[in-house]
Design goal:
This protein is an alpha/beta fold. Helix content is 47%, strand content 21%.
Length: 564
């Protein structure tokens, strides 16, 4: 710490000069205001500088000295990040040395001989003041953990970078760490901080040499503003390899979003919002590490945005249609209609029939899927009642419960209200829940499912085999039907690995004492193999694609006729 003179704290400076008379003269000029250290050559001076690194405010440096000259000191301090912040005033009588000194990082000059004490004191005070001001700005503009810019200053420097380099094409890049909360949870916060520091260091090495800048936005999210590249695969691989090599191969996985469109016409904040959107779209997609926001991506986002804007109107005008796909029991000599699955379709007034693959993931990501689900439930329950009243026949209909539905505290009341309003029995409204819902939060989901079963509802585990249920966990799950994921059925042949997997699923179902529904069945050969293997119920294009309620009536009438 600087020494104290009464109540005034003196800043510490060092004079490095091989001439004793020069050291004494500067000491006499400065000692009333500063705590002055002395060194007779560059080597001794660097030793003192490192000893006082946290308290030293200024170096006054002669250039021509034995052992180590002033230029060597300048080069050493410029190369060491811990010393780079300390300002250096060069002591020289040679004008020719000034340019070289400036290039090596000198902040100012004091001309020999020292015949203007007031000027020297003024220059020293100004350089220290400027340096301390820069240090305060740096502390305010930098992230304390990584040393990268923080968001507040980052966008300003992005604008300056483009303003001063009009010929540069810049891209916005967002990098974050997949499931970083687990890194902290498993290895501890100190380890997590080390991961962030190593990633930040790798980012700096990768982009700063070409004029790029970076910031740490929050937690594990980093923004990179860098010169346009043909591909970002090499950068992605470099960052991934660096961070894993430096943190003992903790298997840290990154994802990267890149905005390559917009250019200077779009503000940096907007470009990074687009890059972050592209990065966020990679959640759950572990086979893909980079996503690019280009014109195609932009057009698709605008298309999706129009869907979101049209959503409320679509509900009010009943643009969402409920189609029904029959399920047939194949245990007997002839297939028998057993039930159906309710599936939503969207007849958009401008776009025509919109694929569920387009709007369902969109509504899931925005929380609107719950409103769609409830719409389908109401329509399905009312349709069961209408078929019973108009055709005199009732079959169970399966409705899908999304993950968000399972956390709805009013779920049971909504379903029970539908039963009362349409005079239905619980077993007439089957509930399909995906396997992944169980694995995400098994305890909570199981509690909800058990409560629903206590009310008489039958539970079908949808897409079984697409998730990660352990056999031990599966034995405790409250389910009434397994729906085999359609991927098992694709290319199934007798003796193939796919067919063996089908047999294993059927063995599991037999152990659990529940029937199996095979989805995606399209050929007679698949039906034969599944029947011989012991599968109970078939759903797929072999019998029918999903059809509207009116078309589905033919299946009901056929069933009614067969029972006469």
């Amino acid at each position: 710490m600087p020494v104290l003179d009464g109540e005034k704290a003196k800043r510490r400076v060092i004079v490095i000069d091989d001439q004793e008379i020069n050291r004494e003269l500067l000491g006499m000029i400065l000692e009333d205001d500063y705590d002055v250290l002395y060194a007779e050559n560059g080597e001794v001076g660097l030793h003192f500088i490192r000893e006082n690194i946290n308290t030293l405010s200024l170096v006054l440096l002669d250039l021509v000295m034995p052992v180590m000259d002033g230029f060597a000191v300048l080069e050493t301090m410029r190369a060491d990040p811990s010393l780079h912040r300390i300002p250096i005033v060069v002591l020289t009588a040679e004008k020719s040395a000034e340019l070289k000194s400036l290039k090596l990082g000198a902040a100012d000059f004091i001309t020999k001989p020292f015949d203007a004490p007031e000027v020297i004191r003024a220059r020293v005070a100004r350089i220290i003041e400027l340096s301390e001001g820069r240090s305060l700005i740096r502390a305010a503009e930098r992230d304390e953990l990584t040393g990268l810019f923080n968001e507040r200053f980052f966008y300003e420097y992005c604008q300056r970078l483009e303003r001063y380099n009009p010929n540069w094409e810049m891209d916005a890049v967002v990098v974050d760490i997949r499931r970083f909360n687990l890194v902290n949870e498993v290895h501890g916060r100190e380890f997590g901080n080390k991961v962030l520091q190593q990633l930040a260091a790798s980012i700096k090495r990768s982009i700063e040499h070409e004029g790029g800048i970076a910031c740490r936005l929050e937690a594990d999210t980093f923004f990179l503003f860098c010169r346009k590249r043909e591909s970002y695969e090499e950068l992605f691989e470099t960052l991934s390899e660096d961070v894993n090599r430096e943190v003992d191969n903790a298997h840290v996985r990154l994802r990267m979003g890149v905005c390559i469109m917009g250019g200077r016409e779009v503000a940096p904040e907007r470009r990074f919002a687009r890059a972050k959107l592209a990065c966020n779209r990679l959640r759950g997609k572990y086979s893909k590490g980079i996503n690019v926001y280009d014109q195609e991506f932009h057009d698709k986002e605008m298309h999706y945005e129009s869907f979101l804007n049209d959503f409320q109107r679509a509900l009010e005008e009943k643009q969402f249609l409920v189609f029904y796909q029959p399920k047939y029991n194949i245990e007997g000599d002839k297939p028998v209609l057993a039930s159906a699955e309710a599936l939503v379709r969207w007849r958009h007034p401008e776009c025509g029939m919109v694929s569920p693959g387009e709007f369902i993931p969109l509504f899931e990501s925005n929380g609107l899927i719950q409103l769609v689900d409830y719409y389908v439930w109401r329509e399905s329950a009312a349709q069961i009642r209408r078929w019973r009243e108009e055709l005199g026949i009732t079959i169970p209909i399966s409705i899908n419960l999304s993950r968000v539905d399972m956390y709805d505290p009013e779920l049971e009341n909504k379903l029970l209200d539908l039963l009362r309003e349409n005079d239905l029995k619980p077993e007439e409204l089957l509930l399909e829940i995906t396997e992944s819902a169980y694995t995400d939060d098994a305890r909570t989901i199981i509690e909800v499912v058990e409560s629903l079963r206590n009310h008489g509802f039958k539970i079908e585990m949808d897409d079984f085999g697409s998730g990660y249920s352990s056999l031990n966990m599966l034995s405790t799950l409250p389910i009434d039907v397994l729906k085999m994921d359609m991927k098992f059925i694709q290319n199934v042949r007798e003796g193939s690995k796919n067919f063996r997997m089908v047999e294993l699923v059927l063995d599991i179902a037999e152990y659990l004492g529940v029937p199996v529904v095979a989805e995606g069945v399209e050929t007679e050969e698949q039906v034969r193999l599944l029947k011989n293997a012991g599968c109970s119920i078939i759903q797929g294009y072999y019998f029918s694609k999903p059809v509207d309620a009116k078309t589905f009536e033919k299946f009901l009438l056929e069933k009614k006729e067969a029972h006469k």
